[in-house]
Amino acid sequence: MKRRLSMLLAVAMLATSLAACSSGGGSASQSSEQPASEAPATSTETPSSEAAPTGDGVELKLWHYYDGTMAEDIVKYCERYSEENPGVKINVTMLPFGDFKKQLSVSSAANALPDMVFIDNCDSVAYAAMGMFADLTEAMKDNADIADYYPDIMATGQYNGGLYSIPCVSNNQGIYYNTDMFEAAGIQKIPETWDEIRETAKALTKDGVYGFGMSAVGNEEGTSQYLPFQIAAGGEDMYALDSEAGLRALSFLTDLVKDGSMPKDVISWSQSDVATQFKTGKIAMMMMGCWYINEYDETLPDLHYDVFPIKDKTFGTIYGGENLAVINGPNVAAATEWAKWFMSYDINKEWNMTASHFPAREATLTDEAYLSKEHWKTFIDLIPYTKARPADPKWPEVSLGYQLALQEALSLQKTPEEAVKDGQAMIDAARG
Predict the structure, then answer these.
(1) Whole-angstrom distance, CA of residue 173 vs CA of residue 22
(2) Which residue, 406, 373, 223, is CA-closest to 307?
């Protein structure tokens, strides 16, 4: 009883403190993310007047916060599984992103949790630490599909040596650039260094157009768009904002603001705001994830763009996306079998491609389904270099330090040197 009460209190606290940290996929303002739906919850659950499966049958509940095509496809995959496994019915419920963690808290208190959830990858370990997620280590130990994932992305689902969630939809980030604007400005060379990015941004800033844009908003979206620069500068330790790499990254972004090549407004821009600025021709280059490829290519034929990687001492990008977790409860075995089926490469790839995401697996690097499509090569080539944020229950509090530093420096209220010190103090306090 004491353990359950502790978990309920922890879930309630988490629901109010965690910022979104996945990316895209129709999920809400996430760290590398498209806006999530704020619509009322929708469900494919069997109406109460219908009888639930009996005998050997099992009825599973799956929760997610996707909207659009991803939400539609989840239902289709669940129906497909039930056709192949007649004894299993899966009820799918879509909750608004902003309510998702709160609903987990309420349902945990009422002992009414689902059997499976899709959850932001950097939130996964916090719920595992509470005991909410089932340990899948033994069930997945011989699974070739899971073994093919890169260790850094698998680490987002690992806690205390166990595997508690599986990365089922992944993304990373690069710099989109408007090829028409480059041509009009006479720019023939894609920037390869930060100095070249800065000079290119200056050349493109004119007539109401800024050369560069990103999200530096005060939530995980801003953190996720800053971290690739720190990583590129050699700062793989994501607890070390006040490192040489952290100062170099924040100084570079601050210089873009000082040059007039990036507006101070980025401290209030969500990632969807940045994407809108880019597609409407207000910024010539933007920091963004792969999740906008389908939208741009399918709905904006007159938008001519391409993507190049962020690189300084090394390539810089981070994983976003969601993990699939099985809830501790009476249906762990059946839910785990569905998870194995859904994570098979062909099925998982189909779902990822529909949403402009990818499986973070070695097999993806040579998959012609991706490599033959325009705009994908940079993102796929970056998969082996992509880093995940620490699998740390305290990450939401740590992230606040990055958000503070971005807000202080890019508003020009403080120098980058002062901002990294302020942010580092918050990070150190969060870690205790």
Answers:
(1) 12
(2) 373
CA–CA dist 286, 214 (Å, integer):
6
**Residues 357, 363: Cα–Cα separation, whole Å:** 14
Residue located via tokens 């620069």: 229
| Structure tokens belonging to residue 428 | 């150190």
Q: Tell me how far CA of residue 341 lies from CA of 80, 131, 325, 334, 337, in angstroms.
A: 11, 24, 14, 11, 6
Over the range 284-295, which residues count as b (16 or more CB within 10 Å of their CB) and which as e?
bbbbbbbbbbbe
Percent composition of the chain: helix, strand, coil (DSSP 3-state, to 5): 50, 15, 35
> Cβ(117)–Cβ(147) under 8 Å?
no
The sign of the dihedral angle between the CA atoms of 153, 159, 162, 167 is negative
pTM: predicted TM-score of the whole model, two decimal places = 0.88
Do the beta carbons of residue 30 and residue 101 sit within 8 Å?
A: no
pLDDT by residue, tens only, the chain of 432 residues: 444 544 544 554 455 444 556 555 443 333 334 434 444 556 554 332 233 333 368 999 999 999 888 999 999 999 999 999 999 999 999 999 888 988 998 898 888 999 999 999 988 998 999 999 999 999 999 999 999 999 999 999 999 999 999 999 999 999 999 999 999 999 999 999 999 999 999 999 999 999 999 999 999 999 999 999 999 999 999 999 999 999 999 999 999 999 999 999 999 999 999 999 999 999 999 999 999 999 999 999 999 999 999 999 999 999 999 999 999 999 999 999 999 999 999 999 999 999 999 999 999 999 999 999 999 999 999 999 999 999 888 998 999 999 999 999 999 999 999 999 999 999 999 999
- The SS3 assignment for 75 reads helix
